[in-house]
């Protein structure tokens, strides 16, 4: 007896790291960042349709492993992601990730994808999308404090979406700054390596903090931050890890993704549980105000939320319609008779 071939529903498109890189280069890195910013903004505009829950986290002394699920009622998505700051010393990535989309009506998966690269892209796209709404008009200079794996993505997203022209870099490790500067050579950005965070933020209208240490840290002190800037604080992503002095928060208008998650993981874990914040989707919808004055300090306390990953996966899935940039995985056991899973197994034995 011939073993039946897997059904069409058994095959799930899988976007490997290799195919993700090919896809990004096929479209262009900056175009992908611009597209992702649009997809994320579109999904934030329909925020109320989504299931929303803080990510499910398993913490250890070494780091955290998390699941980030959501659904818009028709499509379900989740991301697996870790955060292990000490990995860099072992020659490993601090963050790795993969994600999945599924059809809500049947529960069948429709795409599996790497998300280590995609997370870096969507995090940068989210930052730029938010800055477009909150940063001072005509902002041209970005200070990047922390020049690790996320820094180039952030810089290019701010250039593409917000029109940034000047990039000022600082990292406690000069090799990281040199790496970032070299990677962005030819990007069109005017890049300055700075000897201190104070020097980096001089003249910057947007300040991004993106460091990896898993601890309460003070990357920016209150006296370093003047009026009229936008702070993009994206390094905080777990309990016990912050980058900004508490007094900066008290001087700022604070914008977040999902308060229930950010109060646990973000900069605002330093504040009272009922401290007022604004959800960025409300600014996008026009139901809340963003920047209201030239002197205002706006702060995006970004920790990453599942809807952003959903948007990124949705974008990648939309690019696969021409049959390129993925391979089919025989991933779902789908017998002709749904009651006969055991029979399917038996028929696979020795070709019988």
Automatic annotation (TrEMBL):
Designated name of the protein: Ornithine cyclodeaminase
Highest classification ranks of the organism: Bacteria, Pseudomonadati, Pseudomonadota, Alphaproteobacteria, Rhodobacterales
Highest taxon above the source species: Bacteria
A Pfam family assignment: OCD_Mu_crystall
């Amino acid at each position: 007896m011939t073993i039946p071939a897997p059904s069409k529903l058994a095959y799930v498109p899988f976007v490997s790291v290799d195919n993700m890189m090919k896809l990004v280069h096929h479209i262009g890195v900056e175009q992908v960042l611009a597209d992702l910013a649009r997809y994320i903004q579109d999904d934030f505009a329909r925020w109320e349709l989504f299931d929303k829950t803080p990510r499910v986290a398993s913490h250890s002394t070494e780091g955290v492993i998390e699941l980030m699920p959501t659904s818009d009622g028709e499509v379900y998505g989740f991301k697996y992601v870790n955060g292990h700051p000490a990995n860099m010393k072992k020659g490993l990535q601090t963050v790795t990730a993969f994600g999945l989309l599924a059809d809500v009506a049947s529960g069948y998966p429709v795409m599996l994808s790497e998300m280590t690269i995609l997370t870096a892209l969507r995090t940068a796209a989210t930052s730029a999308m938010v800055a477009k709404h909150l940063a001072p008009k005509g902002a041209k200079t970005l200070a990047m404090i922390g020049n690790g794996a996320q820094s180039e993505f952030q810089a290019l997203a701010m250039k593409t979406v917000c029109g940034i022209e000047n990039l000022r870099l600082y990292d406690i490790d000069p090799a990281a700054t040199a790496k970032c500067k070299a990677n962005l050579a030819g990007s069109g950005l005017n890049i300055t390596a700075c000897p201190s965070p104070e020097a980096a933020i001089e003249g910057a209208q947007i300040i991004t903090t993106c460091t990896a240490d898993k601890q309460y840290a003070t990357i920016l002190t209150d006296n370093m931050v003047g009026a009229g800037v936008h702070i993009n604080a994206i390094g905080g992503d777990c309990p016990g890890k912050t980058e900004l002095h508490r007094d900066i928060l008290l001087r700022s208008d604070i914008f977040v993704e999902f308060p229930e998650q950010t109060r646990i993981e973000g900069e605002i874990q330093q504040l009272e549980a009922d401290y007022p914040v604004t959800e960025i989707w409300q600014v996008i919808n026009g139901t809340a105000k963003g920047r209201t004055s030239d002197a205002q300090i706006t702060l995006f306390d970004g920790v990453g939320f599942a809807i952003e990953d959903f948007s990124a996966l949705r974008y990648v899935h939309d690019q696969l319609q021409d049959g390129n940039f993925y391979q089919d995985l025989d991933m779902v056991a789908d017998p002709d008779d749904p009651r006969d899973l055991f029979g399917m197994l038996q028929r696979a034995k020795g070709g019988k």
